[in-house]
Amino acid sequence: MNRYNLSDQKATSWLNRAEICVSFIQRDIQTREAERVDVADLGCGDEKLERLLASRLSRVSYQGYDIIPQSRRVIALDLNRDELPRHYDFITVLGVSEYIDDLRGFLVKMAGSADRLIISHVISDAGVYDGEALTRLGWRNHLSKDQLLSLLAECGWEVLDSYLEPIEKRTFLVIARSRAG
Ligand SMILES: C[S@@+](CC[C@H](N)C(=O)[O-])C[C@H]1O[C@@H](n2cnc3c(N)ncnc32)[C@H](O)[C@@H]1O
What we know:
The protein is α/β, with parallel strands linked by helices. Helices cover 31% and strands 25% of the residues. Strands 3-2-1-4-5-7-6 form a seven-stranded mixed beta sheet, with helices on both faces.
């Protein structure tokens, strides 16, 4: 199961990424005094985010989407082609932005599909991946931190907060608010 790097899906770094995502959601709903959370997890993999959300938040509704559903709860959807069936409070995109063919088009579309976006990206600033590595990984996008922040702004997202994993400084997460709403 190594398509989309899925053989690593139990790695601590992936769990840590999901933990940061949940802490972004917790802070955001506290700030807004929102009572419930409605999350679409795009490219959800093994739905680890659902388990974490359920353990941290009392009122959460979660739906996973993936091109390769790993359980019957997950809705099959190709982010390169298909539309989300409805609007969500939060869209989470963890470990997926690297694989999307038209990241700009996707981000523009998502700005009309959710109030908040939490996206991770393995940034190029650390200089770890050369062209050969990107081909091996099947990554279509490998942006710098500044390139990702600019792209989000151009696509209708206002960045609220961000996090750079402090040891390897490769995994960057952003929570952003849609300017469409
Ligand atoms: C690196 S894994 C991350 C999984 C999960 N988000 C996590 O953090 O554990 C990438 C996931 O994106 C999914 N994926 C890749 N391309 C996709 C596409 N075009 N549409 C929907 N899902 C996609 C893969 O099937 C895989 O589950």
